[in-house]
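Hi V.,

You were right to ask for the full record rather than a summary. Here it is.
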Amino acid sequence: MSSTYSPLRKFPGNPLGWLGIPIMDRYIVSELLAPFLFCVGAFSSIGVAIGVLFDLSRKIADAGLPPTIALQVLLLKLPYFISFSFPISLLIAFLFVYDQLSGNSELIALRSCGVSIWRLVVPALALSLLITGITFVFNEAVVPAANRQATQTLDRALKGREARFRERNIIYQEFGRQQLPSGETERGLSRIFYAREFDGRQMKGLTILDFSQVGLNQIVMAETAVWNADQKTWDFFNGTIYVVDQSGSYRNILKFDQQQLQLPRAPLDIARATTDPIEMNMADIRKYLDTVGETSNQREVTRLRLRLHQKVSFPFICPVFGLVGAALGIRSQRTSRRAIRFLIGLLIILFYFLFTQICDTLYLLEILSAPVAAWLPNITILAAGIALLIRHSR
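Predicted structure:
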């Protein structure tokens, strides 16, 4: 660093100066910001072009999607790719900046003044933690809502309806405490709700198996049913109720044109809820898991439980990538090949996403728990970054 250089002179009225941040930290952070923002723009554009633009182009040509709607969907998809670009940009930008500082002998000058390698990466870590918070809030408040809006906009344009919902085979299982012949109670299956079709308003082809009463089972079959929001019940139409005793004989058969039954609203929530994690924030996933409970679709529930942990672990890859980028950029006397270090940086990014997929698979195979599968990629790369810094500090 030149002896006549002054960051305060470069940034008159710098607000960071009010916070008492040391000049060295302000200088490094100011050098990091511009490359980081450039990388966010570049990687977001690449992601949108690969992930959305080609698909929308096909829909414009093959399905007649209006270009204005395509542009609207493109903009709504942009936040999703911006959130992915944050950690990638941190690694590449920090690698570039620390490499430049090292190449200009500024890091050597600072180290000759007694500044350690660990102290030099503190500004990068501080900025990375700030980006971590921004990524978390962005992923919770902006990305799911934008993705849902993009899906609804595309559905309205291509299918002429407002929103997606499950059209067939809605299944809901309800569990509760049941009394045994001995008088004791245990948790068990109390009801099974099945609807063959759903048109967005009413269920069709319904069968309800009710095991909630001791010594008596009830089977309800109906042509249609709708949720009565005023009375918090289900209105069944054109059906039959079969009451079966413990011996398996029909005790009573009741035909009805309309019948109200006190059943939970959960089947309607299941039919209308999205289960795509990119359209759900943590509150949506928790609400869905509470509603679905122990349904038969355990694979979907299992997948969402992992996504819940990953929505916390993903933002924290930002300081990990920031640390690795800085560690790669700090040039040692023995390794000065810039291209190789950039290639290593790209391979680390690729390794992270591949290793995340491997951990997903190991979790679905019940080899890893959900917290371990979500955090293991972060911990592995963090260990590599710390090892690099230890090597440089010797």
